[in-house]
Amino acid sequence: MNENGDRMSIIVQTIASILFPLALIFSFYVIMHGHLTPGGGFQGGAIGASAVALLIVAFGAKYVEGKMEEENLSIFESLGGLVFVIVSILGFFLAATFLTNFLVGEPLFGIIPAWGEAPLNSGGVLPILNLAVGMKVIGGLASVVLILAIASKEGEK
Amino acid sequence: MKKATAIAFIIFSLFLFFSAYEMRSFGNPPSEMDDRIIGKYNSTANKWEYGAVNETGANNAVTSVVFDYRGYDTLGEATVLFTAIAGVMMLFRREKK
């Protein structure tokens, strides 16, 4: 630890602030292409949470806590779970059963792809569920990493 | 010990590189053969006769299993994650100043 508290050196801080938006974009790419390529909500959410962990390593838990509070991350996570359950129950009301893929065949998200490359708006409710799970994993894992980092800092004193 | 670690690392990276080289192109299904899960594509009529792509519209059959056919399982996984995070938040919460 240097005089900056729990921050690392200026080189690590610069590299982390360059890599953080790239990691978030990659995480969003993996989440939104979950129905086309390998990956999905859980994997992309883990990538986004590791971006937040990189910020915590480089800038310290105190600084990151000032920028994003773990309560807001927790609210984000609960919002993801709520979207998942609401889409599932909509399948119950608009189609046959709970978690029915009721958007297949519709113009929005419902295109059944031909052979080869598929468009992004295919898959029915799968992109929405992927996005919900991604929100859940990003918010949950990031809040856990943040709150554990703060708790370990307070335990050292 | 260090040498063994380096050799293991090189072998693992070779596995990764070869499997990345063998990957099919972006978003393509594995092959045009009659597949019980992915389905059979009728190229004269330009549509799928049966299978996962016809039923869910997703090109990725694994995602169609995880989020459509076994959606309850994913809901349970999300609930497990929610419970674990609620436990961590309950253990490490702090008083409001």
List the helices and strands and how they pair.
The complex is a heterodimer of chains A (157) and B (97).
Chain A: H1 10-32, H2 41-59, H3 61-67, H4 70-94, H5 126-156
Chain B: H1 2-21, E1 41-42, E2 47-48, H2 52-56, H3 61-69, H4 71-92
Antiparallel strand pairs in B: 1-2
Helix pairs in contact in B: 3-4
Keywords for this entry:
heterodimer, A: about 160 residues, mainly alpha, 5 helices, elongated, B: about 100 residues, two-stranded antiparallel ribbon, 4 helices, 2 strands
Poorly predicted tracts of residues of chain B: none
Q: How much is the radius of gyration of chain B in Å?
A: 22 Å
- Number of alpha- plus pi-helical segments of chain B: 4
Q: Indicate the percent of residues in helices of chain A.
A: 55-70%
Biggest beta sheet summary of chain B: 2 strands, antiparallel
Number of strands of chain B: 2
Task: Give the topology string of chain B: H per helix, E per strand.
Answer: HEEHHH
Overall radius of gyration of chain A: 19 Å
User: Based on the structure, what is the oligomeric state of the protein chains?
Assistant: heterodimer
Q: Main sheet of chain A?
A: none
Order of helices and strands of chain A: HHHHH
Q: Give the total of beta strands of chain A.
A: 0
Low-pLDDT runs of 5+ residues of chain A are none
Shape of chain A: elongated
Q: Fraction of residues of chain B in helices?
A: 55-70%
Average of per-residue pLDDT values of chain A: 88
- Provide the structure class of chain A: mainly alpha
Beta-strand content bin of chain A: under 5%
Derived structural class of chain B: mainly alpha
What is the approximate shape of chain B? flat
Strand order of the largest sheet of chain B: 1-2
Description:
- The complex is a heterodimer of chains A (157) and B (97).
- Chain A has 5 helices and no strands.
- Chain A is mostly helical.
- Chain A has one domain (10-156).
- Chain A is elongated.
- The model of chain A has no long low-confidence stretch (mean pLDDT 88).
- Chain B is mainly alpha-helical.
- Chain B has a two-stranded antiparallel ribbon.
- In chain B, strand 1 (41-42) and strand 2 form a beta hairpin.
- The model of chain B has no long low-confidence stretch (mean pLDDT 84).
- Chain B starts with a helix and ends in a 5-residue tail after the last helix.
